[in-house]
Structures are given as C-alpha cells and as structure tokens.
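Backbones bend. Shown next:

***
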Amino acid sequence: MTLRLQAITRDEHLAFVRSRPSASHMQVPSWGDVKPDWRAESLGWFDADGRLQGAGLVLLRPLPKVRRYLAYLPEGPVIDWHDPDLAERWLRPMIAHLKSRGAFTVKMGPPVVARRWSADTLKAAIADPAARRLGEVTETSREPGADKIADRLRGMGWRRTEPGGEDGFAAGQPRYVFQVPFAGRSLEEIHKGLNQQWRRNIKKADKAGVEVVRGGYDDLPAFHELYAETAERDRFIPRPLPYFQRMWTSLTAEDPDRMRLYLARHEGEVLAAATMLTVGTHVWYSYGASTSRRREVQPNNAIQWRMMTDAHALGAAVYDFRGITDTLDEDDHLVGLLRFKAGAGGEAAEYLGEWDFPVNRLLHKALQVYMTRR
C-alpha cells in the first residue's frame, strides 16, 4: 500500500504525537519554535483512506547566499521504521519532497535502539583497563531488526555520521544514552535498583535538609547562573539564557507539562537545578547545572530522585538521562558523568545514530568540509 506525503498543520502533527505512546521531544511541533534560525515544517504520511500514519518535524537551515537548505529531522521522523518497504513507502517520498523545497542534504536520526548494556556491564567496562570504547564492549542485548534497518538505509545511499571528537559525542544528537526503565516497576523497585552510593547520597541530602522544588520561568536566570558555572567546570560551551526562556515559553505553550524546572536548595541557596521534558510516556533529564559549593550535601542525587519520583507519578515508561560519552578512559573528565548516570541502575543504549542523504553531492561535500574545520 502506497503512502501520500504532504505538509500538515501543527494541530494535525500534535494530534498524531498524542495518539502514540511517545515521540522524541525534538519531534513535536513546538520544537521548531525553539530553533528560530531554522524554518520548521511538519510532514505527514497518509494512507489511501486519508489516515495519518507517520509524521516528522523538519528543520530547514539555509546556506548563505543561495536558496538551498540543510533539512534536519532530529530523532525522527516518527514512522514505521521496521516496514520492509521502508525506502519506497516512507523515505523516498520524503527525500523527493525536501528536494522540491531546496534541500541539498537530508539529515535524520532514526529513533531506533540497536544495542543495550546493563549497568553492571557498564560498571565492569569502566573498571577494565583494556576497555577503551563502549561500542567495543559486548552488549547485554541486541535489538532485533536494527541491523536490517541500517542495511536498508545504506542500500538507499544514506551514510551514517560517525561521532566526532575525542569525547565520542556526535555533532548532532547523542548516539549513546543512559535510560532507566520504569514500565511495570513500582517506585520502591526503582529505588532498590539505584546503587548503594546513590541511595546513601539521597538519604544524606534529606538528612542535611536539601529541599527540591519546582521552579518556573522566573527561576530560569538562577538555573542559568549555575549552568554557566557548570559549563566552565566541565569544559563545554553554554547556551545563552534566552535559549532556555524561548524553550520554556514554546514547549509549555504546547503542553503545560512538556518542560519542568527543578531547583535543589540548601539553607536558602540554590545548589543544583535541572530541566525535565515529557512526551507521552518518555521523560528526559534534559539540562543539569550545579555549583561546586557544598557538594557534600548531595544536591544532584536529591534533584534526580525527585525528578524520577515525579516522572513515575506521571506514568513514565522510561526515564532518560540523555547522552553519555562512549569513552571508558578513566582519565577522561566525562567518565565521572557516565559513572553518575550508571549509578541509577538502568542501561546504556546505542541508537542507530544520525544519517545523511546527499541530494546535491557538491554542496553536501562543502558542508562536510565546513563542519570538519569549524
């Protein structure tokens, strides 16, 4: 059965997302409002009876001086990735449509998990001096069908964007993430799944009087102050405050619970802050920030446990800590963050990664050279 692809309204797109258990927070209509430098368009795949079967948020970024665009579907589109006729029914119509819009390259991130590693496997790998990269460690489980999807993409001419840089993070969305499964588990079972250090630190924060509260738009400057401190300490480039203000305004206008802000206070001072995003039954820990002061009262564990507790109350099937580095080198400064997330007792997951389709090979090559030199 063939599918018809066309642009759809925001309302149609949002209704489709709400009809599914979940979708990436980067595949909801409001995410386009978070990215004003891109032009957003919602696409829909319809069957012969006019029913919407799939949707995707496309972000179009113009090349300077020419009317050509990079078309990007972060962590999308939301389609039937396991369809044996993936190419003809879903992806070729999308490429043709975006080519007509002036796209010279299409970039997407299939929301398909390929492999998983348990927390125990990850802990052993970090402790093993011979283990250098997570991708080289034998997985705990492999998701059926993921390899076939990758083969179909290669057969069409798609090419996977390999992670760049020494820390293993890709230029786009993370290929490796850490997730805690919630489905079918009580809060007590999730608490028992935390490692001993996490449970001890949560108790220590409570005993010290750390208070975790929900914040709002007016608390974003306090969050950003800690975030800027975190960026300097952990050596990354921080986003400006207006980005988070725009994110809050856009996402909460679409759904009041799409984005939450949490603050951990101790004796009147905010020591840690974090944002939480929700789409359906998937909850993400999005951005985190903390000060180096009074770390002994463990505000980071306290704020995460409060967020996990609230996510469970919302009916979450998974609590997603987002990106982790794939390096296992003890001397790497990012391994500490990996160890912290692994302490939550979940599992590391590898997605299929981000893939490029060069519509115009010359312009695509120019983009690759630019990204390499940037």
Summary: Confidence is low (pLDDT under 50) at residues 164-170. The longest strand covers residues 52-62.
